[in-house]
Amino acid sequence: MVPPRLTLVSDNTREKNETAASEHADAVRDDKLPAALSDPEDVVNHLSKSALREKLRRLEAMLFASSQPLDAKALARCLDADDDVVALLLALQAEYQDRGVTLMRVAGRWQFRTSDDLSYLLERQQKEERKLSKAALETLAIIAYHQPVTRAEIEEIRGVSTSPGTLDVLMEAGWIRPRGRRRAPGRPLTYGTTEDFLVHFGLDNIKDLPGLADLKAAGLLDANLPPGFTVPSPMDVAALMPDELPLTDDGDEEEEEQETLPLEHSDDGDEADEPGRPEQKDGDE
Predict the structure, then answer these.
(1) Is pTM beyond 0.90 here?
(2) What is the CATH number of domain 21-116?
(3) DSSP 161
(4) Quick one: which H or E segment has residue 68?
């Protein structure tokens, strides 16, 4: 068996190899950096742009992963405490302005949606949506523009009675909700729109509903309108109005309990005055 041959390598040769490898790595690293970063200010700008890009990537990932619109508070969890979330979202919205999906703000929250000009590509749906009746559309419009409004007020505006099923359909769709009770005899329920209503119709706020001029321009109103015809300005009234009571009013329950309590007998001899009971006199046995 022939023993293996050993080759002696001098220290000078090994040092030359290590030096060449180090110089090659530095050259590769320098090639990756732009030539304009030789100035310290350019280096700072490059790092700030990299940090900005990383923050936009985080927001982009969270918005794509969520099936529901996200508000600025939820998105701020992936950023630093001193970051301007709204400014970053506007920057991300500008980047997606001419793409197949756009970043939109609906109901005060943010969500990626298909561009309007490409919506025809997604017209095919697996389930058939049920169209609202004319009465339901009229009722929904009255609630949106006049909220908070009661059923009697809806019927007064429409001029006809409103079926309870119409309100049930709108509540099942998640577009209206009972707000409270009106401070009036009978304490009728008041109705208002929901956040799902804003999301479905692509509105950021209830005030974004079209006004009189917009409805005329869209051809939804007749040109010969009666004198003094106006369209009310919808209000964003999340809290109860002064003429509204909360749905769970403890005062109503207390009044009902007082009405159902049985009469208590006093201790001043009222029991002797009960009908059909003879009065007892002194000396009677």
Answers:
(1) no
(2) 1.10.10.10
(3) -
(4) none
